[in-house]
Structure formats: C-alpha cells, structure tokens
Amino acid sequence: MGKHGQHSSLVPDVEALRWVPGEALAQRRADATPGVKASKKEGKAALAEGVPELDVLQERLFAAGSAGDTRRVLLVLQAMDTAGKGGIVRHVVGAVDPQGVDLAAFKAPTEEELKHDFLWRVQKRLPRQGHIGVFDRSHYEDVLIQRVHQMAPAEEIERRYGAIVDFEAELAEQGTEIIKVVLHVSREEQGARLAERLARPDKYWKYNPGDLTERAVWDQYQEAYRIALDRTDADAAPWYVVPADHKWYARLAVQELLVQALRRIDPQWPAADFDVEEEKAKLAELG
Fold first, then answer.
1. Which residue spans within the chain are E strands per DSSP?
2. pLDDT at 116 over 80
3. Is residue 278 within 8 Å of residue 70, measured between CB atoms?
4. Whole-angstrom distance, CA of residue 269 vs CA of residue 287
5. CA-CA distance, 123 to 126, in Å (whole number)?
6. Which of 88, 142, 188, 238 to pair with 135, CA 20 to 30 A apart?
7. Could you tell me if residue 82 is left (phi over 0), alpha (psi between -120 and 50 degrees) or otherwise beta?
8. Cβ-proximal residues to 241 (8 Å cutoff; 6+ apart), any chain
C-alpha cells in the first residue's frame, strides 16, 4: 500500500523519473505515468488524498523553522512553455499554508541584475529556514536560453555549469533539500496547448508570441537540457524528468517528491519554551 493507504498503483515511481546521465530527453515518453496505473479522475483523487500529509509535514517544517531549525526545501521547476509550471504551483504547492512558501518566478534579468554574476539574483530569493522555496524557472535559464540563443560565450556557459554545481552543493550542506524537476512535455502536446490558448479568449493572457520563437528551436532546447542535466545532476541536488503531457500525473509526481523530501527532513514540533502546567493553571484561573 502507498501513502494514506493508497494502492501502490497510485503512487508515482519517482526513482524511475531520476535523470540518467547520457540519456536524451527523446528517450523519455512525455505521456508516460511511471508507477501509476489510473485514469485522470483517479489521479486527481489521489492528488487530493496526498494533501493532508504534505500539509502536516509543511506545517511541522514551518514550526521547526520558527524555533531555529535551519533546514528548508527548494523545488526548482524548469520546462518548455505550456508544460504546466503554474499548475504545479497552484495545485501542489498551493495546497499548503502560503505563509510557509517562498515563490520566485525568474524572468529576463534586469539591467541591475546583469551587472552582477548570474547567481546574484538567485541567492537573494533562496527560501528562508522552515520554508518551501519554489523557483518557477531558475538559474538554469542562464545555461539553457543563453546557450540556445548564444547570448553568452561558450566558455562562460561552461563556467556556469561548475558554478551551479558548487552553489547547490553548498546549499545542500547548509540543510537545503533540493528537488530539481524538468516538466517534460512533448512537442505535439505543446502545440495543442498553444492552439487552445489562441482559441479561447480566457486563455489569451497566457499566450506570448515569443513562445513560437522558442518552439522554433525545440531541438536545440532538448540538447541544451540534456547537457545541463548531465553536467549538474548530483545526489545532493538530483534531477527528475517528470512526464507532463498528463497534467494530473505531473502534479502527483511533484507532490510525491515534496512529501519524500519532507519525510527525509522529518521536522518535529518545537517543544514548549514555557511551563505548560503553569499556563494551564493561569488559564483556568481566568475562566
């Protein structure tokens, strides 16, 4: 049986999602559902069933952080457009207390940010102790988009891979559980999602003409991702390739990754820093 008494067929096999160096993204089916044999309805129900454990673990982490526990979680979400990063934030991370979540959505760097090393703006947005941090896009943009569009010299891109590895290793040593996720959407599914955005007025706001610019260099992005994953995967900061053609599965898989990370931390409720019995007696006197 899986979490909350769920049948094992409803718990994603996250080990099957781990990146294997030397692979190509094309070897991974974007419509696969490793570990889960279920319908969309059953998958969505399983996601709801997973919320109580995630919620309690997150509250314990937040409580422990308020008492001095310096550990935290960092969820890095990378993907091509339409892969569902926003849905992960809304339906998975959004199910817990927002005061314990630090969300950073990295856009194109500002003029001020460009004056500094590429990690400067990232370091400023790291999660606080006791928090779950979410990077909606991240420092990996600086070795993906910049590689594809040749916005930085090749030797600078190479330097960045090493800088990222060192940066994440230091975070892990300081007590940060790092989960790095590539939401792997197929080119066909992306095309369908872009077409839906163009067909529905309530989706226009999600559409960006620049998405087609990036779609035109799809193969170059697949290669850039492969190199980045190979160069920056580590046991302390692992990459997971989550199939994203089925949004319900991607959400269920990321929920499971978060739950497992929090179980590893195993945060505890802080002990009272006051005399409990004395406070009970005072309360009783007040009536």
1. 72-79, 101-105, 132-136, 176-184, 239-243
2. yes
3. no
4. 28
5. 6
6. 188
7. left
8. 17, 18, 19, 25, 28, 182, 184, 229
Helices (H) and strands (E) in the chain, counts: 11, 5
53-69 per-position pLDDT tens digit: 999 999 999 999 999 99
Q: How far is 253 from 14, CA to CA, in rounded Å?
A: 7
**Lowest-confidence segment of 6-10, 167-171, 188-192 by average pLDDT:** 6-10
Residues 130-159 have a mean pLDDT of: 95
Provide the CATH topology of domain 3-267.
Rossmann fold (3.40.50)
Tell me the pLDDT of the chain averaged across its residues. Answer: 94
Q: How far apart are CA 132 and CA 125, in angstroms?
A: 12
pLDDT at 1 (0 to 100): 38
- Is 92:258 a contact under the CB 8 Å cutoff? yes
Which amino acid appears at position 137 of this protein?
Answer: R
Identify the sign of the CA torsion 50, 55, 56, 60: positive
| Predicted confidence (pLDDT) at residue 131 exceeds the cutoff of 60 | yes
190/206 Cα distance (integer angstroms) = 13
Bridge partners for 135 per DSSP: 76, 104
Quote the CA–CA distance of 134 and 95 in Å, as a whole number: 14
The pLDDT value recorded for residue 10 is 86
**Chain segment 9-26, per-residue pLDDT in tens:** 689 999 999 999 999 988
Which of 45, 44, 133, 46 has its CA nearest to residue 96? 133
The DSSP symbol for 149 reads: T
